[in-house]
Amino acid sequence: MKSIDVVCAVICAGNLVYFCKRNKNGILKNKWEFPGGKIEEGEDKEEALKREIMEELNTSIIIDAFLGEFSYDYTDLGEDNFHINLYAYVCTVEHGMLERKEHSEGHFMKINRLYELDYCAADLQIIDAVKEYFSRKVQVKK
Q1: Could you tell me which CATH number the domain at 2-141 has?
Q2: CA dist., res. 48 & res. 91, Å (int)
Q3: What is this structure's pTM?
Q4: Tens-place pLDDT, residues 94-134
């Protein structure tokens, strides 16, 4: 089974998190995910993330925190099965308007409504971590 390394951005604005919907063609079609993409040879993870968000959303981001590393085996895709190592970062928009270039939809959701979309399986683990991250952040502010 092939293995890929991917970075993704948990783009936040207050208590909202941005998600993108994959196109209706290709692997994991019409599933929701955090935006990002494959790390190219010679790139560090943060460089890759900034490049991917600029390419996919025409937006510059500020990386605020490393959320974690997540892995998942997609074993129900037949010939397209793969293992993914997903590196997630909490980010904010530096400049740009989140113009989708590769996804069919994109929008912000409130933290308490994160489980309402049909996500890629690997991204579900990140949602748990996002909820925990924001829970800790709120507790620290009190």
Answers
A1: 3.90.79.10
A2: 14
A3: 0.92
A4: 999 999 999 999 999 998 898 899 999 999 999 999 999 98
